[in-house]
Design a protein that fits this description.
Elements lengths: L17 H43 L6 H12 L6 H14 L13 H15 L1
Helix pairs in contact: 1-4, 3-4
Length: about 130
């Protein structure tokens, strides 16, 4: 009869860690992606503050005697300084008043009240 084979060994269990390696890989990639997004946001917000200061300095350095240039520059750069509703209203009011100095070959000088409003707007945004 057939006798039992003695040279064949029984099945041995091989440990499989692939699932744990997969989970570890996902955690590491997620942490690296989160770190990258955090650093990117931090870099952008820091750059935004510096950009805001640059715009404020540019608007402060305008020569208020050149009314046409002031009208165009304030309209272009002032909108980046608006943060809330009251500042938006102040900005729109100044831009509306500056429209009188645009689109002309020779613009009249700025009146004193408008100069004060522009300086007030810049002072409010400086805080």
């Amino acid at each position: 009869m057939m006798e039992k084979l003695k040279d064949i060994k029984p099945l041995v269990e091989i440990p499989d860690y692939s699932f744990y390696l997969y989970l570890g890989f996902i955690v590491v990639v997620t942490l690296l992606a989160s770190l990258a997004v955090y650093l990117l946001i931090k870099l952008m917000t820091k750059k935004g503050k510096n950009r805001r200061q640059e715009i404020l300095e540019h608007l402060r350095s305008m020569d208020l005697k050149q009314s046409k240039n002031v009208a165009y520059e304030f309209t272009k750069w002032g909108r980046y300084l608006v943060r809330d509703e009251s500042q938006a209203k102040m900005y729109e009011d100044i831009v509306r008043k500056l429209t009188r100095y645009k689109y002309k070959k020779e613009a009249p000088p700025l009146d004193e009240e408008l100069k004060r409003e522009i300086k007030l707007f810049l002072r409010v945004n400086d805080e």
